[in-house]
Write a structure and sequence with these properties.
The chain is α+β, with helices and mostly antiparallel strands and about 120 residues long. About 20% of the residues lie in helices and about 15% in strands. Strand 2 and strand 3 form a beta hairpin. About 10% of the residues are buried.
Length: about 120
């Protein structure tokens, strides 16, 4: 088996076009800052074990800082039914808020880099 269904999130009237998770930026950027560098690392050889260890520690610290903020992970979904649904997927299977008012299908979503 590859995976296990943990939770089915239901609420949209039509198909879901896009999803965004609040920790997506942290996971995508890994150890790098917004300049594409790892802070406080003077090693230039990316193949060295020192660089890999520092990159790993920076990634873990960045993720723990996000998770330690006290905010639950958030998920937002956009649909052909012109709505957005905001979820706390680790806490329940019902959306916490329905955002309406779009005049067309929602096709792209993103959280800001600081997850606010």
């Amino acid at each position: 088996r590859v995976g296990l269904l943990v939770r089915t999130l239901t609420g949209h009237g039509h198909r879901v076009n896009t999803l965004a998770v609040s920790c997506d930026y942290v996971c995508r950027t890994g150890p790098y800052d917004h300049y594409g560098k790892i802070a406080d690392l003077n090693v230039r050889d990316k193949k060295s074990s020192e660089w890999r260890e520092a990159a790993y520690k920076a990634s873990v610290a960045k993720y723990k800082a996000f998770k330690g903020s006290g905010e639950p992970e958030r998920l937002i979904s956009g649909s052909d039914d012109f709505t957005l649904l905001l979820w706390h997927p680790t806490e329940g299977k019902r959306p916490i808020k329905r955002l309406t008012g779009h005049q067309l299908a929602v096709n792209h979503l993103a959280f800001s880099p600081d997850s606010r």
